[in-house]
Amino acid sequence: MKSDIRVCANWETAHDRPVYTLGDSCPDCDGPTANSAPAPFSPEDPYGEYRRRARRRRDSE
Ligand SMILES: [Zn+2]
Q1: How far is CA 41 from CA 7, 20, 60, 61, in A?
Q2: Which regions are flagged for Basic residues bias (predicted)?
Q3: Whose CA is closest to 33, among 8, 15, 10, 12?
Q4: Where are the domains of the chain?
Q5: What is the pTM of this model?
Q6: Which DSSP string do the residues of 9-40 spell out, in sequence order?
Q7: pLDDT tens per residue across span 16-53
């Protein structure tokens, strides 16, 4: 599946949630964007968000 929607490549570290855009740079942090096709929130990976939350929680402890 092809998509023109892009997502901030550094959203996991720069933002609390994915920042989507149609441009080549993030509107929030001006960083690079990646095609969102390999989606951070893939329907095939329903627990990805939980894994990321768990990891972030560990990192902050
Ligand atoms: Zn960003």
Answers
A1: 11, 12, 22, 25
A2: 52-61
A3: 8
A4: 6-60
A5: 0.55
A6: TTHHHH-SS--EESSSB-TTT--BEEESSS-T
A7: 999 999 999 999 999 999 987 655 555 566 666 667 77
Residue 4 has a pLDDT of 83
Provide the residue type at 31 as one letter. G
Q: How much distance in Å is there from the Cα of 46 to the middle of ligand 1?
A: 23
CA distances from 19 to 1, 40, 58, 61 (A): 20, 11, 23, 25
What's the token pair of residue 40? 């951070």
Query: Partners of 8 in the beta sheet?
Result: 33
